[in-house]
Amino acid sequence: MEKLQVCRLCGKSIAYYVCRLCGKNVCANCYDNGICIDCKLGKKLKSK
Ligand SMILES: [Zn+2]
Ligand SMILES: [Zn+2]
User: Fold this and answer.
1) Which of 1, 2, 11, 29 has the fewest beta carbons under 10 Å from its own?
2) Is there a domain that residue 26 lies in?
3) What would the pLDDT profile of 6-23 be if each residue is shown by its tens digit?
4) What spacing in Å lies between the alpha carbon of 11 and ligand 1's midpoint?
5) C-alpha 36 – ligand 2 centre gap (Å)
6) Ligand nearest to the CA of 15
7) E-strand stretches of the chain
8) Domains: count for the chain
9) Domain region containing 11
10) Quick check: is 11 in a domain?
């Protein structure tokens, strides 16, 4: 009976945050400025 979810990216820490883009549950280490590092690195913000 797991109430707390583990981070979807690193799978080690408890996911306290939710990415605004992909909706993944991520931990503080994998969360930055409202999005997960996966989106951050993947997006590369093409629009300036
Ligand atoms: Zn993580
Ligand atoms: Zn994301």
Assistant:
1) 1
2) yes
3) 999 999 999 999 999 999
4) 6
5) 4
6) 1
7) 17-18, 25-26, 31-32, 35-36
8) 1
9) 1-41
10) yes
